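[Meeting: bench + compute handoff]

Bench side (C.D.) handed over the final construct sequence. Compute side (W.E.) agreed to return the predicted structure before the next meeting so the bench team could plan truncations. Sequence as handed over:
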Amino acid sequence: MGYMVRLGLWGTGTAFANFRDFLGAMEKGGVGALELVAMDMKARGMYVCRTLSYKGVEFEVVEVPLEPQMMDIYKKAAEFWAELRVELLSASTLITETKPNSSQLWRLYWANHQRFFRHICMSAKVPAIVRLAKQALKENKCVVIGLQSTGEARTEEAISKYGLELEDFISGPRELLLKFVEENYPLPEKPEEPPEKSVKELQRKRHLATPDVSFRGRMRKVTKLQTTRDDKSDEESEIDSEDESSESDDDEFQICDICNLEEERKKLLQCSCCGQLVHTACVLPPVIGTVSGDWSCPSCKEKTDEYIQARQAYVAELTKRYAGAVGRKLKILDIIRSLDLPNNPLDDIIDQLGGPEDVAEITGRRGMLVRTSDGKGVSYQTRNTKDVSMEMVNMHEKQLFMDGKKLIAIISEAGSAGVSLQADRRAINQKRRVHLTLELPWSADRAIQQFGRTHRSNQASAPEYRLLFTNLGGERRFASIVAKRLETLGALTQGDRRAGPSLSAYNYDSAFGKRALMMLYRGIMELESLPVVPPGCSADKQEEIHDFIVKGKAALVSVGIIRDSVLSSNGKDSGKISGRIVDSDMHDVGRFLNRLLGLPPEIQNRLFELFVSILDLIIQKARMEGNLDSGIVDMKANSVELQGAPKTVHVDSMSGASTILFTFTLDRGFSWEHASALLEDKQKDESGSTVIGFYESKREWLGRRHFLLALEGSFSGTYKLFRPTLGEALREMPLSELQDKYRRISSLDKARAGWEDEYDVSSKQCMHGPKCKLGNYCTVGRRLQEVNVLGGLVLPVWGTIEKALSKQARLSHRRIRVVRIETTTDKQRIVGLLIPNAAVDSVLQDLAWVHDIED
C-alpha cells in the first residue's frame, strides 16, 4: 500500500506522520489491525470488497474415527514402512561410490511416504463419505464430493502391467510402493568376470611399470611395444639410420636372461607378460614341444593364476551379494503384494454410490475402472462415449448433474475449474447441495475456489459444507496448511470466516506451534522436562512418563526425525545411528506432522496430543500476557447487554464520521440448573459412562476448590469442560489430565453447593481473591465482566489510542486488540478496539472530548 498516498491513511492531519509509522502500527496490530483498516476504508467509501453473502451456508468439520479394519491396515502399513527404512539403510551400505547419491533415495522415500499415508487417510474416509452422501440423498438433497488427486497415474501404470481386465480395483498405495521399491531399491553393480586375456594384459602392464626391472629388459619391452604399435598403424613410419644398418630379425642375436649366453633371437622364448628371453632348456621345468604365441614364464604364470583365482573369489563374493540383494528386493515386493491395502478412493466411491450411471465425474483423468456386469471383476474404459469427445466429457457430466439425471458429482481441482454446480434457479436440479471435502488442497485460495463451485449467485439455496478429517494427528498437517493460508488472506476472506467455524483451530504451523514443537523435542530427548504431563501418564508416576519418552524417542527414530547417522569413510552422512535432531528440524512443524503419518495410530495420536497440549499452554500464556494475535476476536457470553448510552469521543473533521465508546456487561457464567440439565441429557445418550459428571480440583487455590462439568469431547479420549465462572472452556482436556488434576464427585448435593458458591463469588471478584493487586480491573475467572469497545471511525484516532495504552502498567493492556461483540437482547453487532477497563480514563483524557449520543 506504500504507493497509495492519495488514500489519506498517513501524512499531515492523520494519526500517522508517514507510511513507515502506518506500517509499524499495522505490524504491531497484527491481522486484526488489517481487518480494521479494511473496514475503516469501506466506511469512508475508499474500498470496495464485493463477496457473495454466506447467509444460509452451513459449515462443519466432521471427525471420522478409523474403523477397526482400517486401524489394522494402518498399523501394519506403518510397521512395514519402518522395516523398509531399515532395509534400505542396510542395502545402502553395499553401494559403491560410483552409485547415485543416497540423499536422492531418501528424498524419494519421504516423498512417497507422505503420498502413501495421504492415500490411506483418504481411503479411511470413504465409508463416511458414502454414508453421508446416502443420508443427503434420503433428505432430498444432492451431493458434491471434492478431492485433489484421482490416482490416474497409478491406474495407468497398473493397466500397462496387468492388462485391461482385473479382478478388483487398483490399490493406489500398493502400486506406489511397488514402483518405489522396483525403481529405487539400492542394488550393487552386477559383477562381470574378465577374460583370461585381459588378465594377462593387466599383468604385462604391471611389469612395464615395475621399477626394479633391468635397463636392458625395460628397453627391450619398450622396443616390443613400439613394434606392436607400428604393426597396428596404417601409415608408414620413418626408419632411422640405426635400424637401417641393423641385421634382420632372423640374424639378430639376443642374450638369455637366465644363462646369459647369446643365442639367435628365433631360438629363444619370450614371456608375453614380463618380456624376458630364455632358452627352452633354461626354464624349470624345461619347455618341450611347440609353444603358443602368448607363452608365460613359470613365475608370471604362477602370479597370473593366483590373480585369476583371487579375482574369481572376489567376483563370486560380489555375485553372492548381488544375488542376495536381488533376493531381498523380490521378497519385499512379495510382501507389498500381500499387504491388505485399500483401493483407489475415487473408483471405490463411484462404485459404492451406484457406478458411473449415478455419479457424475468432473475430473482430469481420461479413463476409469468400472465393475463388470457379472460383478466378478473390473475393466478399464475411457470416460467418454462415441457421442461425447474427451474434451467435452466434463461439461457433459456437469450438465447431467444440473439436469438432475445424476444426483452425485465428484470434482477434482484439474477438472472443476470454472464449473458451476450451485443450486441454480435456471437449472432443473435445484436441490440443496451438500459439499463433502474428502481431500483439501494445499492452498487456501484453491480451497475457496473449489468451495465456490457450489456457492454462487442466483442459487435457490446455500450449500452445506462438510470437511472430513480422520482422528489421526498427522492428517492435521493438511488442514494446517489451508488454515494458515486462510488466515493470511486477511480482510478479503474475513467475510468467509464470519459465516461459521473456521479452520484456524487447525493452524499448527505458527510461531507458537514452532515453540511448542521445540519444547516437545527437547522433552523427548530429555534435554529438559516436558512442560505438561504426557497423555496417558500421571504426574506422580515417573515410570509412566519415562516409558512414554522411550516410546516417543523410538517412534521419532523410526520416522527419521531423530537422525540415526554417523560419518562414513568419505566423511559424509551415511545414515547410521547418532541420536540427535538437527537444528533445521527443531522448528519444522510441517515435517513433524508429515512424519507423524508414518507412525501407528496409538503413538501417533499420543505424540500429537502432547504437541497440542504444549501449544495450548503457550497460547494460554500468550493470551494472559496480551501477546496473542487472533485477528478479530468474537467476545461471547451467555448474556451481553449494552450498559448505558454510547458516548461519542471523536468526530472526524473531513468526513464527519464519529468514534464511539460502547460499554457492555458480559455474564460468562454457567448456572447449576443449566449444568445439571445438560448432564442429564448427556447421560441419556451415553448410558453407563463413568467419566462424565461433576469434578472438583484436587488442589486448593487460595483456600478454595474449583468445580467443573466434564462431557464427552469431539475426539476420542478428550472431554469438554464447563465451569460455573466461564462456561464452556476453549480447550478439550485429555482424560489423563482430567483425572490427574480433578476428582469426580458422586454426591450431587456436594457438587451443587460447590458450584453455586463459586458461581456467586465470581460475580464480584476474580479468581485471585479479594486481595488481588489489580482490584476490579482484573477479569481472570470473573463471571460478570465490563467491556469497553471503541467503535465507529477508529483509524484517525489510532495513534492517540496507541499512545494512551502504552502508558498502562500491565503488558496485556498495552496491545491493541480488535473485537466483535453482539448483544443478546437486540442482536446489535459492534466491531472495534477493545479498551481495557484500566485504560478507559487515560484514553478519554487523551481524546479530550466526550459527548453523549443524542437519542
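W.E. noted at the follow-up: Residues 298-338 form the longest helix (41 residues). C.D. will use this when planning the next construct.
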